[in-house]
Design a protein that fits this description.
single chain, mainly alpha
């Protein structure tokens, strides 16, 4: 592997790691917000009950694409072979898609838009995530 290739691999791994941390922060904020609404209706939930709701309740379904992306990044970073450029590009593309808020869009885009309207911390986490992507363009 050439020095340039090695540099690109390291840059891709760093970007994936940074995106993972930013997504985890945003995901936690969104999850806490959704949990609050869920518990207003269903009462306080134990950790086990909340996990079951996260996995099965339609109210949390919109968050699953972000959860799945975080798992995908973990797999890429944990793999013995470094992530390929097309893997990094696919992740950044999906992050861009998941950070699209649209009050007239699909369920995810509408919920994400609502969260950005209601949760100041979500706005800051969203901004930080977009800053990571600012100079990153698909190859």
């Amino acid at each position: 592997m050439s020095e340039q290739d090695l540099g690109e691999v390291r840059q891709g791994e760093k970007l994936l790691s940074d995106l993972r941390h930013a997504l985890l922060r945003l995901h936690k904020i969104l999850l806490d917000w959704e949990r609050s609404g869920y518990e207003r209706i269903h009462g306080r939930q134990s950790s086990q009950d909340l996990l079951q709701a996260l996995l099965n309740d339609p109210q949390f379904a919109w968050l699953r694409p972000m959860s799945q992306l975080i798992v995908r990044i973990d797999e890429l970073l944990g793999d013995k072979t470094p992530p390929m450029r097309n893997d990094v590009d696919a992740v950044t593309s999906q992050v861009r898609s998941l950070t699209t808020a649209n009050q007239n869009g699909d369920t995810y885009e509408r919920r994400y838009d609502m969260a950005l309207q209601e949760i100041p911390d979500a706005v800051f986490a969203h901004r930080d995530l977009l800053a990571l992507l600012k100079d990153e363009r698909p190859s």
